[in-house]
Amino acid sequence: MPTAYPLPKNLSPATVANTASLIRIVALALISGAAIASRLFAVINFESIIHEFDPWFNYRATRVLAAKGFYEFWNWFDPTAWYPLGRVVGGTVYPGLMATSGVIYNLLHAINLPVDIRNICVLLAPGFSALTAWATYMFTKEMKDASAGLLAAAFIGIVPGYISRSVAGSYDNEAIAIFLLMFTFYTWIKALKQGSALFGTIAAVTYFYMVAAWGGYAFITNMIPLHALVLILMGRFSSRLYVAYSSWYAIGTLASMQVPFVGFQPVKTSEHMAALGVFGLLQIVAFAQLVRSHISSQQFQRLLVAGVVSIGVLGALAFVLLTYKGWIAPWTGRFYSLWDTGYAKKYIPIIASVSEHQPTAWPSFFMDLQFLIFLFPAGVILCFRELRDEHLFVIIYAAVASYFAGVMVRLMLTLTPVVCVTSAVALSTLLDTFIDPIEPEITDDAQSESGASTTSSVPGTNGAASTAPTATSAAASKKAKKAAPAASSEPGLKLSDVFASSTVKTSRPRGIYGLDTRVMIVFNTTLVLAFFVSHCTWVTSSAYSSPSVVLASTNPDGSQHIIDDFREAYYWLRQNTPEDAVVMSWWDYGYQIAGMADRPTLVDNNTWNNTHIATVGKAMSSSEEVAYPILRKHDVSYILVIFGGLIGYSGDDINKFLWMVRIAQGVWPDEIQEPNYFTPQGEYKVDDSASPAMKNSLMYKMSYYRFAELFGGNPGQDRVRQQQVPKVGPTLDYLDEAFTSENWIVRIYEVKKEDPLGRDLKSANAFAHGKKRKRSKPAPRRRAIV
Amino acid sequence: MHWRSLRFLFLGLVAPALASPGPSFENTAIVRTVDLGGSVVHVTTTYAIKATKPGAKVYTIALGLEEKEKTSWLEVKVKGQQEPLELEHYPLDSSRNFHLADVKLPKALALNASLNLVLETLQTHATTPYPKEASQKEDQALKYSTDLFVLSPYHTGVQRTKLKALTPRIISHTTPANVQEFILDAPATKQGATVTYGPYNDIPASTNEKFIKAHQQPITAHYFHEQPVLEIADLKRSAEISHWGNNLNIEDNLVLHNAGPSLKGHFSRLEHQSQAFFKRAAPHALPALTLHLPPGISNTYYYDLVGNVSTSHLRVAPAAPKGQRSNRYSVLELRPRYPILGGWNYSFTLGWDAPLSDSAVYDRKTGRYIVEVPILTPVPGAVVNKAELSIVLPEGATDVEFSPPFPALENRLSTHTTYLDSTGRPKLTFEYENLTVMHAQSIFVSYKVPLAAHLTKPFVVSVAFFSVFVLAIVTRRINLTIHKEKTL
Questions:
Q1: Domain, as residue range, for A299
Q2: What is the pLDDT of residue A295?
Q3: Signal sequence: where (chain B) (predicted)?
């Protein structure tokens, strides 16, 4: 057998197997190391700190769990959130994440490693990303082989699409959910392949874990039934499918109902009905199989038609009836917004106001996945070559996740694993083809001519490209072009297999000749992979590793300067205000205030009560006189606003202000109207030409209070909106400035108590400043609050 | 510790009886100088004494009861000498208005021999802000009160009290009444930054109700103070000794409180920034602290409840050569997250690692380690209201002994379990109140660590790893399948 390059002789198969196994283990260990290390940028550049908004709640909850134990956490009623309503935390969270950290915490403490709970929370996501790499390896191994698995593990380890949600400090549900997703899918495939009730049960248990950990579990709840349904429709029903699905569904659903936040949803809401329906269908199909094995085929035909029709009609009717009666909840708004991207903006502005719920911009596909996005279709095509049951799963997964990733930025996360898997399959097929040392034998005698012609007509890559150009190659880049068709030219078979089994199977031996082609392809692929690594590193370090609690800028001398206004203000609140002082802010900062300042908040990132949020929106967007009774009725002591005008921090409250107006308008359309906040020309202005409603709004006043004075007579410049602020800034009658952070990003105001003399605060303030009261128009006496 | 207090008790009962047969001294002059400060007031009283009987060896000093309560540190020396004299306190008697203590003179005085004694005390919480509130633009004024006369069981020739402020801006001071019999001219004079009471001549022995009732009176000075009045409400220091790591880790948890006049109205950043710009910072705002840490430290950390504070600078001095004491310090400029204005709090954690060899020695003869642990790192001008020092000794340390520079309110020995421990480490805890810069001394702890205890840690860790591997080996070799699986 001719080989392109010399192979070592006299190696025993055991040595080869052992070496391969060792290399696999070492590679996986290194991949895990890389996955963890690349997520530590945030810790190295900044510090071991919880990021962003939601993680602060998770962290706070975990601390309760670690300090007081699981039962306390389970029954935890938090009176400080959603003041004065409170929040039943135990019943409204997915406790998986906190429980995981709690278990790790207790375990470490049990073996005398008293690690701080914060460090456990910060490092949980990187730790689980290593497990995700392993789960992806196992999953891809089922698809193709171990080498594809290793590639997939490496991809998922460093791909920015996944890192974006799992850097150190990003202590969110997704941190463990992607591992659970991949592991559930792996066990499902395993269960399906072997018809194993054991693996089905493991799938159910991990599914339960997933349900406890992330709201996105609905993706599994629908993916597995969809896969099962497609298998049935393709006539691939088998007892293996029956065993796997039934054990997964029965145990998984019962287990998932143990999570209080989920409760009876698996039998009551539409999102879960597909799983139930497929479960029912499987029973029917299985029964039909049983019947068919006992009766003649003609009778069976008739029975089948009648049975299928009647059961289908009955099932649909029952579903409609149950939905109509309200026993099954109809689709939720979030669900509709998955199909109609404009839906949320119209009906649920609170969902639309979150940036991660926006449709994905196309560059972010490249940013998050780089060359994987080009290999992805090739990998899917390769799945069609063999089309085993598990390949079908990947194909469905790819189609569904592609759609969702296009609808919502956030769902890019669910697309990433399947992209890694399919890309790994594609790339590994390519490498298998080109690294394989065996050259096709040039057959002698009769076939020499055709052989020779093949040789001449198939010079390396060009020949490969000409053999099977596919539709995908047109869309893909130049590099991917080489990869995809070259890979698809080998129909999922290893050359070695072909040549090992029979020297000449077809009339034209196919394969790669010579070393040059091989070197070229392998070199190119290595280059692409190297670029991928550097891209991932760059994206991770520059885009995804900012805690957003701490901002970084650069000093003139190039050293890093930390802008730490948020923590400054939160810590001031924590140390210098009464413990029961209620802080009002826009909901974005609710979790952070609760976590860092440890003070009650009116609204937070768990946006469950739209009216309450709208109340805050109304207070922020109306004038002082209107807002004051609202503030007093809600016991608000302090108001916190974020203002970026001084240093140009664009994520501030004035930029979010229109959402507050919109949400308030949704509840009080008569009092708050969005157009009032624009200039007559329809511009959003904060300078002299700003509309009266804008200038009188609490938000505007609090943001720009005494801001113009900072410029000492010169016109003040708002560096976010690039507008000049009015020279005479707004005045406050009902509020007092209590604290402003170093760069003015966070401004805290105290709500004044009622005037002891019963005067209107406005006139009291005017009196204090020595202004004469106008005789003509006496100030209205404010009525006492009942 | 108990035997010592017992001895006090005993002497307290016996000493008055011994001292009773007529005074053996007289004070030619007493000069008291009070350095008016913020939370700590430094009082120096110089007694020029003359023996009226030969062989007198014990001199008794007296403090007013209120003064005694404020005093957190007290030391008597012969003027010009470094060694403090031994002091024995009388038991506190609340029925009397004064407190007595005996000073053991270095040698018995001959008849008419004279000696100058210096009594230094530090008073804490002796000043009160007045007015109680100050806005950001206003000055900070404090009031300090003390008794007019320095009490003494002996006859005093002449007595003066000087109140010295840091700046000449003294708003007011009390003019004592009812002292005509002692004075020649004005009862109190103010000159620059000093208010002088006296000289008062020919004062009889004053440790009796009669004199106190007739003449003792409070005097008050009201003055501007240009440094923030700082209190450390709570200090928890833990020192952890590691022989394996050659490391002494010290971690302080501090709750800082600005005890000056509380902020009137609200904090305005604009005001604060313009004050900083024009270099006219409010006297009661604390923007930053400078601390002196030991030389040769590493891994210094400064964080609070919400994470790392990135606004500090540290200049580390190199460690002293072995066997020598370095008089250089690492300087830490520590900026709280926000300026601490009157009445505000700020809590933070500060810690560092120091080479253990700088503060520990091993005595080959007795086989004991002796480690020096500083009780606190002084925060300039601040008083520590409550302090708790815990010293974590290495695992397996036995025969623990310690010698404190001054007695603690309470001390106890417990067990502390931390990283890679199997049996836990002995932990000494000391509790203190009202510590000042003078209390920044060291506790010396000595203990024995047998070799076996040194080796416990690596042994436990290797056993743990080994058992994991064994477990893995065993589980790999157990086959639980019921059916023989098809080969994959």
A1: 204-209+217-331
A2: 80
A3: 1-19
What pLDDT was estimated at residue A774?
A: 56
Mean pLDDT, residues A609-623 taken together: 90
Nearest-CA residue of chain B relative to A570?
A: B306
What is the predicted pLDDT for the residue at A465? 37
| Domain-terminating residue out of A313, A331, A349 | A331
User: Nearest-CA distance from B458 to chain A in Å?
Assistant: 14
pLDDT (average), residues B272-289: 83
Residues of A (101-130) whose Cβ lies below 8 Å from B: 111-114
For residues B239 and B324, state if they share a domain: yes
CA-nearest residue to A552 within chain B is B310
Structural domains of chain A, count:
2
- What does DSSP say about strands B194-203 and A560-563: parallel, antiparallel, or unpaired? unpaired
Per-residue pLDDT of B190-231, as tens digits, reads 888 899 987 888 888 888 888 888 888 889 999 998 888 999
Contacts of A113 in chain B (CB under 8 A): 419-420
Three-class HEC string of chain B: CHHHHHHHHHHHHHHHHHHCCCCCEEEEEEEEEEECCCCEEEEEEEEEEEECCCCEEEEEEEEEHHHHHHEEEEEEEECCCCCECCEEECCCCCCCCEEEEEEEEEEEECCCCEEEEEEEEEEECCEEECCCEECCCCCCEEEEEEECCCCCCCCEEEEEEEEECCCCCEEEECCCCCCHHHCCCCCEEEECCEEEEEEEEEECCCCCHHHHHHHCCEEEEEEECCCCCEEEEEEEEEEEEECCCCEEEEEEEEEEEECCCEECCCCCHHHHHHHHHCCCCCCCCECCEEEEECCCCEEEEEEECCEECCCEEEECCCCCCCCCCCCCCEEEEECCCCCECCCCEEEEEEEEEEEHHHCEEEECCCCEEEEEEECCCCCCCEEEEEEEEEEECCCCCEEEEEECCCCCCEEEEEEECCCCCCCCEEEEEEEEEEECHHHCCEEEEEEECCHHHHHHHHHHHHHHHHHHHHHHHHHHHCCCCCCCCCCC
Q: Do B311 and A564 touch (CB under 8 A)?
A: yes
Residue B11 within a domain: yes
SS3 call for A582: strand
**Nearest Cα residue in chain B from A708:** B270
Q: Is B467 on the interface with A (CB under 8 A)?
A: no
- pLDDT over threshold 90, residue B81: no
| Per-residue pLDDT reduced to its tens digit, B349-399 | 999 999 998 888 898 998 899 999 999 998 888 899 999 999 999 988 889
A475 has pLDDT over 60: no
Is the pTM value of this prediction over 0.95? no
Q: Is A752 on the interface with B (CB under 8 A)?
A: no
Domain range enclosing B416: 230-452
Does B418 contact A112 at a Cβ distance shorter than 8 Å?
Answer: yes
The percent of residues in chain A predicted with pLDDT above 90, rounded, is: 35
A562 at the B interface (CB within 8 A)?
yes
User: Which tens digit of pLDDT belongs to each residue from B323-352?
Assistant: 677 778 889 988 888 999 888 999 999 999
ipTM: 0.88
At B10 the pLDDT is 46
Same domain, yes or no: B314 and B213: no
Please report residues of A whose CB lies closer than 8 A to that of B238. none
User: What is the Cα–Cα distance from A697 to A656, expressed in whole angstroms?
Assistant: 14
- Scanning A663-722 for CB atoms below 8 A from B yields 706, 709-710
Which of B337, B347, B419 faces A114 most closely, judged by CB atoms? B419
What total of structural domains would you count in chain B? 2
| B3 pLDDT tier (thresholds 50, 70, 90) | very low
Average of pLDDT values for A84-103?
89
